[in-house]
């Protein structure tokens, strides 16, 4: 890795600042290009694939998508870095000034000194259309809920009329997006088969399925611990000396966590195995209800990961009541 180049990209709406850090410690001259596919493709064409160790960048609300697509097309290794990691790295390096060029240099240095030692696997490219549709459905659902809440409290006739019009428009838009999602999944044999397998786990419905398929393409490709950490359901311990803080979860994929939260609430009512797991945590182990529900979310995620990995429906979904009132458990698709 001594002759490899590690490249940091600081992405903004209009341009991208590029910094290069060599494994030997030498830094190249900073560069700024337009954040357009043409400019990025021209830049990647001048790179020697064999010399690039890693290209790193932070997610910036979608402005990084053009860069990511161009890197995929160029066959260059890249990684998305959580902003909190760069903040911590900045503090460790004692860098107080902040400009786009400095940020790009920090990301490049972080890639060379930290990411290169982690043995990162390749990023999994998912279905971008399904991801966008899933995200848009979530946005519309949130807006619709907010407008309905406002309508319930409104007093003015004009305000009520305005809210009613907005609710109608949002409902129409939401129906259209949901129909598009269903059509997109139905049009793909692989997506349809994957959706059927995931829904074999009782508590998982259509919204959970398209969220997982669209926003968690790594499902089935990582271990249970890795997928839980990626989504943000792996507890982080807080211990120092005699102090024992409460473990917390977070970061990761908030959209996926929200979908799993609703799935877990359903599962602890209608999925006998998940209900038994939840009851054991709360009634025997004395866990707080919210902590127990988070544990159910993680258990469901790990189960879904195994379903996607093995390409088989949930094994308990095949059980059937041999007769009414027997001890058999039916866990067929909802």
Summarize the structure.
The protein is of the alpha/beta class and 334 residues long. It is built from twelve helices and seven strands.
Assign a percent range to the helix content: 40-55%
The parts where pLDDT drops under 50 for at least 5 residues are: 320-334
Terminus-to-terminus distance:
51 Å
Largest sheet: 5 strands, mixed
SS content category = alpha/beta
Instruction: Quote the average pLDDT.
Output: 86
The largest beta-sheet arranges its strands as: 3-2-1-4-5
How much of the polypeptide forms β-strand, as a percent range?
5-15%
Radius of gyration: 24 Å
Number of strands: 7
Can you tell me the overall shape? globular
Contiguous helical run count: 12
- Give the H and E element order: EEEHEHEHHHHHHHEEHHH
List the helices and strands and how they pair.
Blueprint: E1 5-11, E2 15-22, E3 31-34, H1 37-45, E4 52-57, H2 65-74, E5 78-80, H3 83-93, H4 100-113, H5 128-153, H6 157-186, H7 189-198, H8 206-215, H9 224-231, E6 236-240, E7 243-248, H10 254-270, H11 272-284, H12 289-310
Parallel strand pairs: 1-4, 4-5
Antiparallel strand pairs: 1-2, 2-3, 6-7
Helix pairs in contact: 1-2, 5-6, 5-8, 7-8, 8-10, 9-12, 10-11, 10-12, 11-12
